[in-house]
């Protein structure tokens, strides 16, 4: 018994190295992207720590943690993430957290947030499609679903995640005084609040030149136009999420209709690992 107890740690370490080597051989592109992005994030974290930028440092730590999410999902759900999907997830996390937050790409490039929300809609439609498709192929669950139903569920799953994220942004802006729902400068709006008759008639306001905001400090803030606080940004985010979800839902529908013949869908839909099932059958 003592001899076995002494050898078990060595076996576990050896098995861990063997599993890591197998993963590298199976997905060399994923390992390369993961390693490069991880080194960049670590370098930024070290620089942020030396400069005392602790918010950026914690964003880097969160990014490193999120980088482990794909492998965690594979292990816990016993599924295999396609290389294209896993690389897209890693790059998406890097673009959102490091380039977007630390690099201020959200402010430097107006399309950055729009692009990420579109990709977000696409990816979560893929995961929603995957969850239902996995149930559809599970031998213990005896039911079949049509491709149209799967596409609709994937679309609804993606849109639900998008709505929940907007709730999160609103909560962070309200309770932690952030500005995740970015403001928009507009020159025209209409409001029933301006109706003197209180008859629920929208009063249009157009050609707004500037807005003057008076503060308690006595220094007015002048804005060229009118400041919309988050409405346009939220609707735009949901709309591009809608576009991404629709694109993948159509691709997923074609994938189910012609199983195995749609390479684009196959590159983004996780598949079930049957190793556990075979082990249970052999035992």
List keywords for this structure.
mainly alpha; 2 domains; two-stranded antiparallel sheet; disordered N terminus
Description:
This protein has 283 residues and is mainly α. The protein folds into 2 domains: 1-106, no CATH class; 110-183 and 229-283. The chain has helices at 2-26, 28-51, 54-67, 69-77, 83-102, 105-108, 111-137, 147-175, 231-257, 263-266, 275-282; strands at residues 79-80, 184-186, 189-191, 203-205, 211-213, 221-223, 226-228, 271-272. The protein has a two-stranded antiparallel ribbon with strand order 1-8. Strands 2-7 form a two-stranded antiparallel ribbon. It has a two-stranded antiparallel sheet with strand order 3-4. Strand 5 and strand 6 form a beta hairpin. Helix 5 packs antiparallel against helix 7. The longest helix has 29 residues, at 147-175.
What is the C-alpha radius of gyration, as a whole number of Å? 25 Å
Any idea what the shape is?
Answer: flat
In what range is the share of β-strand residues? 5-15%
Q: In which range does the helix fraction lie?
A: 55-70%
Number of separate strands? 8
- Show unreliable segments: 1-5, 275-283
Helix segment tally: 11
Question: H/E element string?
Answer: HHHHEHHHHEEEEEEHHEH
Task: Note the topology.
Blueprint: H1 2-26, H2 28-51, H3 54-67, H4 69-77, E1 79-80, H5 83-102, H6 105-108, H7 111-137, H8 147-175, E2 184-186, E3 189-191, E4 203-205, E5 211-213, E6 221-223, E7 226-228, H9 231-257, H10 263-266, E8 271-272, H11 275-282
Antiparallel strand pairs: 1-8, 2-7, 3-4, 5-6
Helix pairs in contact: 1-2, 2-3, 2-5, 3-5, 5-7, 7-8, 7-9, 8-9
């Amino acid at each position: 018994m003592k001899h076995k107890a002494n050898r078990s740690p060595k076996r576990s370490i050896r098995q861990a190295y063997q599993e890591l080597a197998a993963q590298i051989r199976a997905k060399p592109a994923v390992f390369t992207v993961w390693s490069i992005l991880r080194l960049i994030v670590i370098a930024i974290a070290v620089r942020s720590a030396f400069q005392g930028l602790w918010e950026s440092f914690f964003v880097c730590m969160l990014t490193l943690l999120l980088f482990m999410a794909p492998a965690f999902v594979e292990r816990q759900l016993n599924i295999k993430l396609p290389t294209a999907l896993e690389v897209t997830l890693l790059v998406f996390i890097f673009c959102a957290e490091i380039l977007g937050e630390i690099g201020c790409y959200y402010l430097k490039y107006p399309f950055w947030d729009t692009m990420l929300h579109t990709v977000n809609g696409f990816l979560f439609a893929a995961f929603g499609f995957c969850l239902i498709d996995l149930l559809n192929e599970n031998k213990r669950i005896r039911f079949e679903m049509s491709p149209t139903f799967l596409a609709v569920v994937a679309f609804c799953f993606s849109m639900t995640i998008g709505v929940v994220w907007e709730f999160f942004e609103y909560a962070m802006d309200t309770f932690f005084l952030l500005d995740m729902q970015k403001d928009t400068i507009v020159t025209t709006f209409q409001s029933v609040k301006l109706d003197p008759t209180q008859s629920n008639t929208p009063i249009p306001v157009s050609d707004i030149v500037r807005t003057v905001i008076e503060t308690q400090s006595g220094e007015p803030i002048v804005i060229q136009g009118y400041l919309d606080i988050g409405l346009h940004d939220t609707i735009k985010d949901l709309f591009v999420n809608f576009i991404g979800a629709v694109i993948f839902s159509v691709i997923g529908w074609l994938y189910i209709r012609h199983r195995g013949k749609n390479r684009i869908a196959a590159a983004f839909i996780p598949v079930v690992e049957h190793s556990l099932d075979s082990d249970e059958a052999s035992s």
